[in-house]
């Protein structure tokens, strides 16, 4: 464990993490600058230098707040930024350092307390490290792009008639995707997609 200082190396890790996550899922928000948290900082070294940084944040619900409805009243949160190539190993090192830090925090043994890591589900490279440290999914936030539509107006009644631009079966979408029924000629592609789902879920 080291005193956390946001320097050029940490800024580089943050920038590389942003690029890595955007490549995995473009809907993920760009990570902000790491927060100092409680003052404890963690890091992992890779072949090319600093490969991961983390900070610990202590959070406690305000009396009367609805936030504890969705989780523990007292939370210790790890803000982890991890680059490649060994995401699993770097995250494992951050989690190990964080665990040793929390062992010295008296409040960690209190009732209604949780250790929390927010990790993108599509970033499967870190899942085995989280499982090894006994983490399990608690809350999931899903996101998707909304359907685009154009509204046509009847000039006499000014009544809107939305026209959805998504593809209907047999139609050509503006993105160039065509939806149709599968045929026996599509067996190889369908099996390939199924195996890809199995490969992804295996994490």
The radius of gyration over CA amounts to 23 Å
Count of helical stretches: 4
Strand order in space, largest sheet: 1-2-3-4-5
Sheet with most strands: 5 strands, mixed
β-strand amount: 15-25%
Low-pLDDT parts are 1-5, 149-167, 169-173
The topology string of helices and strands comes to EHEEEHEHEEH
Question: What would the average pLDDT be, to the nearest integer?
Answer: 82
Structure description:
There is one protein chain. By secondary structure, this protein is of the alpha+beta class. It is built from four helices and seven strands. The chain has helices at residues 8-24, 87-102, 127-132, 187-201, and strands at residues 2-3, 40-46, 49-60, 74-82, 113-117, 149-153, 160-164. The strands form two sheets. It has a five-stranded mixed β-sheet with strand order 1-2-3-4-5. The protein is globular and about 65 Å long.
Give a short synopsis of this structure.
This protein is α+β, with helices and mostly antiparallel strands. Helix content is 27%, strand content 22%.
Topology record:
Layout: E1 2-3, H1 8-24, E2 40-46, E3 49-60, E4 74-82, H2 87-102, E5 113-117, H3 127-132, E6 149-153, E7 160-164, H4 187-201
Parallel strand pairs: 4-5
Antiparallel strand pairs: 1-2, 2-3, 3-4, 6-7
Q: Which key phrases capture this entry?
A:
single chain, 22% strand, five-stranded mixed beta sheet, two-stranded antiparallel sheet, alpha+beta, 4 helices, 203 residues
């Amino acid at each position: 464990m080291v005193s956390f200082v946001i320097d050029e190396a940490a800024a580089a890790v943050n920038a590389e993490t942003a690029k890595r996550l955007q490549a995995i899922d473009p809907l993920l928000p760009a990570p902000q600058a790491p927060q100092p948290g409680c003052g404890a900082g963690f890091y992992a070294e890779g072949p090319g230098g600093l490969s991961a940084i983390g900070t610990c944040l202590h959070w406690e619900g305000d009396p009367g707040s609805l936030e504890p409805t969705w989780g523990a009243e007292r939370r210790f949160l790890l803000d982890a930024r991890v680059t490649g190539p060994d995401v699993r190993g770097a995250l494992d090192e951050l989690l190990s350092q964080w665990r040793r830090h929390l062992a010295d925090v008296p409040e960690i043994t209190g009732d209604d307390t949780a250790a929390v890591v927010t990790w993108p589900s599509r970033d499967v490279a870190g899942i085995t490290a989280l499982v090894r440290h006994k983490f399990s999914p608690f809350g999931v936030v899903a996101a998707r792009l909304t359907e685009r539509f154009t509204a046509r107006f009847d000039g006499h009644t000014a009544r809107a008639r939305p026209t959805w631009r998504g593809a209907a079966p047999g139609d050509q979408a503006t993105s160039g995707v065509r939806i149709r029924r599968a045929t026996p000629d599509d067996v190889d592609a369908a099996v390939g997609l199924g195996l890809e789902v199995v490969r992804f879920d295996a994490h």
